[in-house]
């Protein structure tokens, strides 16, 4: 094959991906994150008033809060870096709950 330069070695090209999921109710909902190596999670309030969000990890029997009832103001986004929301997705599932009957929270995971 052809190379840009004979002095460039070991370059890995990665694509930037985004996964988006919205809550549509106020029941505990599983966030189906496809893999765990994301760089950040954005939680956007799409409502005209503040919306309260809770995040929990579930190991098959027990729910453990990561965030409990944090208010996200109107038209605002909460950004969680990977070290703030990182978990072993082979052991745990991530669940979210909105206090709004229509959900009105959108989760964006950036890879």
Key traits:
1 helix, 4-stranded antiparallel sheet, 8 strands, 111 residues, 45% strand, 4% helix, mainly beta
Structural overview:
By secondary structure, the protein is mostly beta strands. It is built from 1 helix and 8 strands; from the N terminus they run ββββββαββ. The longest helix has 4 residues. The chain is globular.
Radius of gyration: 17 Å
Structural class: mainly beta
Strand content: over 45%
Shape: globular
Query: Helical region count?
Result: 1
Tell me the total number of β-strands: 8
In whole angstroms, how far apart are the ends?
29 Å
Main sheet characteristics: 4 strands, antiparallel
Mean pLDDT: 90
What's the SSE pattern?
EEEEEEHEE
The proportion of residues forming helix, as a percent range, comes to under 10%
Strand order of the largest sheet: 1-8-3-6
Pick out the low-confidence regions: none
What's this, in brief?
It is built from one helix and eight strands.
SSE layout and pairing:
Layout: E1 18-23, E2 29-31, E3 40-45, E4 51-58, E5 63-72, E6 77-81, H1 82-85, E7 93-98, E8 105-110
Antiparallel strand pairs: 1-8, 2-7, 3-6, 3-8, 4-5, 4-7
């Amino acid at each position: 094959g052809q190379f840009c330069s004979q002095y460039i070695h070991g370059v890995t090209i990665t694509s930037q991906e985004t996964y988006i999921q919205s809550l549509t109710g106020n029941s505990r909902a599983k966030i189906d994150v496809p893999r765990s190596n994301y760089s950040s999670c954005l939680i956007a309030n799409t409502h005209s008033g503040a919306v309260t969000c809770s995040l929990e990890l579930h190991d098959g029997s027990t729910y453990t809060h990561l965030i409990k009832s944090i208010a996200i103001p109107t038209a605002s986004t909460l950004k969680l870096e990977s070290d703030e929301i990182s978990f072993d997705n082979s052991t745990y599932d991530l669940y979210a709950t909105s206090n709004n009957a229509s959900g009105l929270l959108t989760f964006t995971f950036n890879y």
